[in-house]
Amino acid sequence: MKDRRNAALKVAESLFAAERAIDLALARAAELNGSMVEARSEAKLSAVVGQDAFEVSAAAFAALARARCDIVETHRRLDETKIQIGLRTLAVGETKPPLAELDNGSHLRSVA
User: Fold this and answer.
1) Is residue 74 one of the residues assigned to a domain?
2) Which of 27, 60, 61, 73 is the most buried (most CB within 10 A)?
């Protein structure tokens, strides 16, 4: 049972790291898309200027959103697997990230 628990903890750490990475990538892709729209507008350029780049960037954002959906489904299925291997009561991680983790230096801030 100890080996199963250790294995589950190792997988959980990897899962949480992947979730954080996808969320960060989503946030950065959203910033890129927003920057492109704002830059075009501020430069008073036609909407057709850079449209092909915007479409590709938007597709990348959509792919990341799909990846987030898939990693959430992975999380759900691993919860089921945990029960299947007899680790029903194993809980790992925090329910909310620490405030220091939320404050990553971006312009978005956590508020109480």
Assistant:
1) yes
2) 61
Residue 46: give the domain boundaries: 2-102
* Closest of 53, 25, 24 to residue 39, by C-alpha: 53
* Local structure of residue 64 (DSSP, 8 states): H
Q: How many CA within 13 A on the CB side of residue 1?
A: 6
- pTM assigned to the model: 0.72
What pLDDT, in 10s, does the model give residues 54-98? 999 999 999 999 999 999 999 999 999 998 988 876 555 555 554
Enter the DSSP assignment of 49: T
Six-digit token string for 86: 């007899």
CA distance 14 to 5: 14
